[in-house]
Amino acid sequence: MSGILTALWPVFALLCIGHIIRRTGFPGDGFWEPAEKLIYFLLFPTLLVYKLSLADVGAVPVAEVALAVILLLFTGTLILLGVQRFRPMANSSFTSVYQGGMRFNTYVGLASGAALFGDTGVAVAAVIIAVMVPLLNLLCVLIFSLYTRKDAGYLSALLAVVKNPLIVACFVGIFLNLSGIGLPWMVASVAGLLSGIALPLALLAVGAGLNLTALRKAGGAVIYSSIIKLVVFPCLMLLICRLFVVSPEVAQVLILFSALPTAPSAYVLARQLGGDAVLMSAIITGQTLLSMLIMPVVLSIFPLFL
Transmembrane ranges (predicted)? Predict the structure, then answer.
């Protein structure tokens, strides 16, 4: 437990620092949106390409990881639809609960995976992202279509997935690795410096986006989604790993990703497609804060059952 807390402490500390400096108005509200674009379109893709081009990607059991992710997402969808059936809430609220229960924070996941498992954690995380992001986007678009009756634009959603810089970076990094091309030293030296900026700035940005006002006004929906995302999902992934995943280290990265809080990008989708954006903001904030308490416990106890 102490080793996991030591590894995760800087991750959560940066989240708190990001929130504090945003509250103080430093360096100004105009800073964060451009910073998020820089992270999403340049820094994180560079990190993934750099790490994956050097990592032992061939050692990652891609089929096992993909199967585990797919089983988790479809089982989670059935659970959330069951919650809506037996404890119905407003359709717009359910779309936010669904996103809260299903999405994962890539920034926190990569930072935690790198801190706990090094380059192996990054390599496994990249495979998880490559499978999870496209499937999650399609599932979320389907849920919005069914529950808000708005045209969610399946073709545009598919194109957005194909053009997702994180997905593209994962495939580029894996190609450079497996092909033996690698990164030229001139590119690698610059990519290494940019990669060093990516995780700290991303975690500060996530912390800056926390909305405590929305959390105080939220009701039981935050509790439902948080229990499913932070407790039920890790239990499901533990069961899946015991059945299908051979490597304990790979299983631990999968459990880590299953226990992540939901993604800040869920707020944008809720606002665009007729969801409850205020509730979504509360869910993002509540889960991020709760994950600071729950993730160390999950990552300490669950590996004992692998």
Answer: 38-55, 62-83, 122-147, 154-176, 182-210, 222-245, 251-270, 277-305
Structure tokens at 143: 């849920």
Owning domain of residue 221: 2-305
Q: Go through 67-92 and write b for each residue having 16 or more CB atoms within 10 A of its CB, e for each that does not.
A: bbbebbbebbbeebeebbeeeebebb
Q: What is the pLDDT of residues 173-226, one digit of tens each?
A: 888 888 888 888 889 999 999 988 988 998 899 898 888 888 877 777 888 889
DSSP codes, 215-270: HHH--HHHHHHHHIIIIIHHHHHHHHHHHH---HHHHHHHHHHHTPPPPTHHHHHH
- Count of structural domains within the chain: 1
Nearest by Cα to 205 from 6, 27, 49, 4: 27
The domain that holds 147 is classified in CATH as 1.20.1530.20
Q: Is 226 helix (H, G, I), strand (E, B) or coil?
A: helix
Q: Is the pLDDT of residue 87 over 70?
A: yes
What CA–CA distances, in Å, run from 54 to 40, 47, 192, 231? Answer: 21, 11, 11, 34
What single DSSP character describes residue 59? G
pLDDT of residue 149: 62
Q: Residue 244 burial by CB count (10 A; 0-12/13-18/19+): exposed, middle or buried? A: middle
